[in-house]
Design brief:
The structure is a single chain. The chain has a 7-stranded antiparallel sheet with strand order 1-17-16-9-8-7-10. Strands 3-2-4-14-13-12 form a 6-stranded mixed sheet, sandwiched between helices. A 4-stranded mixed sheet has the order 5-6-11-15, with no helix packed on it. It is 20% helix and 32% strand. It folds into 2 domains: 7-176 and 282-329 and 336-345, Antithrombin, subunit I, domain 2 (Antithrombin, Chain I, domain 2); 185-281 and 350-390, Roll (Alpha-1-antitrypsin, domain 1). The longest helix is centred in the N-terminal third of the chain and has 16 residues, at 63-78. Helix 2 runs antiparallel to helix 4. With 391 residues, the protein is of the alpha+beta class. It has helices spanning 7-20, 33-44, 49-59, 63-78, 97-102, 138-149, 251-254, 289-292; strands spanning 29-31, 83-91, 107-110, 167-178, 189-194, 200-211, 215-218, 221-227, 239-244, 266-267, 272-278, 280-287, 315-328, 332-345, 355-359, 364-369, 376-382.
Length: 391
C-alpha cells in the first residue's frame, strides 16, 4: 500500500483514526492521526517478520514500502499551505545505513551514551555532521528541535528523556492558517454552552453569516467547513471542519463525519447560515502505546520484536507519546502535534432564501484535513465549556 499520494494511503490514516478514536474516551482531547501514522510508519520501515506484519495491519505499509510512504506523506503534507512537517531520529547505537537511506528527509543525531566505536560510515549512519567530541545535552537539543519544528506551539518533547532510551524518533506536524473570511471581533460575545455533564455556562462565542454551501449533513451530524485563505505559493490550503452531532453523541460517532466522502453528504436546504462557534484551545498529551495492543500491535512492544532493519541491536518500542494543540480564534486556526517514539534494547437546484442558525453550544468536534480533504491531520473533541484564559 502506498503513502498519502494514493487513495489507499489516505484510507489507511482514516482507518487508523476511526480505530483509535474509541480508545480516547469522551473528554476533551486533540490528537494527530497523521502524526501517529507517520511516526509508526518510520519505525515500521525497519521492522521485519511478524513484527512487520502486525504494524502493516495497523498502518497499511511495511518495510521499504513504509519508508517510501513516510517520504511521500511528508512531501504531500508539506505541500498543503500553512503546514510544516519534520521527522528526526536520535540513537545511542549504530543505525544501519540502509535505514537512513530509506528515509532521505529524516534527520539523524546521536544520544549521549552512544558507543563510539571505529565503525565504517555504512554501519554507523546516525551522525549527520555531528562531531563525536561535541555531543550536546540531548534533552536540550531535542526540546529545541521540537520548539522550532512546531513554530513555538509545543515547547518541548512530550515525554522527558530518562537516559535509558536507545533510540528516539520524533515527528512534528504544525499548521498556521487564516480564515478566508475572519469572524468580526465585535460580534464575539458570551453565549450559553452546555457541556457533556449537562451544565450550562457562558463562553466567548464568535459569530458570522456563512454560505449554506459550507455546511452539509452526514447522517445526524452537521459538518461546517470554514475555508482557509490560500497561500501565496499557490498550494492548497488545509480544510478545517467543525462537526456537531445529536445530543448525547460522543466523538467516536461524530468525528468521522469530518472526513466522510461526498456521496455521504446531504446539502443544507437554506440560503445562508448564521454560525455561532466558541473561541477555544485544546491541548492534550496522549500515551498512544497504551492503545497499540488493542489496535493489533503486540510484538513490537516487547523483547520478541524484530527491528533488525534499523540496527543490529535488539530493540522494541517502549513508549509512543503524542502532544497536540489546536487553537481556534477570530482570525484563523493554529495547530501542532509532536509524536515521540522511544525504543529500548531488550535484553444543486436554487435554494430557498432561508437563514438557518447553527450554534456549537454543546460538545462538538474539529477536524483538520490536508488540502485534498483526504488525510485527518488533527481531530479534536470539546466536551467541556471553554473557560479562563484559554478561551
Amino acid at each position: 500500500m502506498a503513502g498519502f499520494e494514493s487513495v489507499a494511503g489516505a484510507d489507511a490514516v482514516r482507518e487508523l483514526a476511526a480505530r483509535w478514536l474509541p480508545r480516547l474516551g469522551d473528554g476533551d482531547f486533540v490528537v494527530s492521526p497523521a502524526g501517529l501514522w507517520a511516526a509508526l510508519a518510520a519505525v515500521a520501515s525497519g521492522a521485519r517478520g511478524r513484527t512487520a506484519e502486525e504494524l502493516a495491519g495497523l498502518l497499511g505499509v511495511e518495510g521499504e514500502a513504509a519508508a517510501r510512504a513516510v517520504t511521500e506523506a511528508g512531501r504531500r503534507l508539506g505541500g498543503t499551505g500553512g503546514v510544516a512537517v519534520a521527522t528526526g531520529v536520535w540513537s545511542t547505537m549504530p543505525v544501519l545505513d540502509s535505514f537512513r537511506r530509506g528515509l532521505p528527509d529524516v534527520g539523524f543525531g546521536v544520544l549521549p551514551g552512544a558507543a563510539y566505536l571505529a565503525l565504517p560510515d555504512g554501519v554507523f549512519g546516525a551522525t549527520d555532521d555531528m562531531s563525536f567530541g561535541e555531543i550536546p545535552d540531548a534533552q536540550e537539543e531535542l526540546d529545541a528541535w521540537v520548539l522550532a519544528a512546531t513554530g513555538g506551539r509545543i515547547p518541548r518533547l512530550p515525554l522527558a528523556l530518562e537516559g535509558s532510551e536507545d533510540l528516539v524518533l520524533v515527528n512534528a506536524l504544525a499548521l498556521k492558517a487564516s480564515w478566508r473570511t475572519a469572524f468580526p471581533g465585535h460580534l464575539t460575545r458570551d453565549e450559553p454552552f452546555t457541556d457533556g455533564d449537562g451544565d450550562t455556562r457562558p463562553v466567548p462565542t464568535m459569530r458570522q453569516r456563512i454560505p449554506a454551501g459550507w455546511v452539509w449533513r452526514v447522517g445526524e451530524v452537521v459538518v461546517v467547513e470554514l475555508p482557509c485563505a490560500a497561500g501565496g505559493d499557490g498550494s492548497r490550503s488545509a480544510r478545517v471542519r467543525f462537526v456537531l452531532g445529536a445530543e448525547g453523541d460522543g466523538p467516536g460517532e461524530v468525528l468521522p463525519a469530518g472526513w466522510a466522502g461526498a456521496g455521504e453528504r446531504v446539502p443544507l436546504v437554506a440560503g445562508s447560515v448564521d454560525l455561532s462557534l466558541p473561541r477555544f484551545t485544546l491541548r492534550t498529551r496522549t500515551f498512544a502505546h497504551r492503545h497499540l495492543d488493542a489496535l493489533g500491535v503486540r510484538l513490537a512492544l516487547g523483547p520478541e520484536a524484530d527491528f533488525s532493519g534499523i540496527s543490529a541491536a535488539d530493540m522494541y518500542i517502549d513508549k509512543v507519546v503524542q502532544e497536540a494543540v489546536v487553537e481556534v480564534a477570530e482570525e484563523g486556526v493554529e495547530a501542532a502535534a509532536v509524536t515521540q517514539v522511544t525504543m529500548t534494547r531488550s535484553a444543486a437546484a436554487p435554494r430557498p432564501t432561508v437563514v438557518e442558525r447553527i450554534a456549537f453550544d454543546r460538545p462538538f468536534g474539529v477536524v483538520v484535513l490536508d488540502g485534498a480533504a483526504e488525510v485527518p491531520l488533527f481531530v479534536g473533541w470539546r466536551r467541556s465549556a471553554p473557560t479562563g484564559p484559554e478561551a
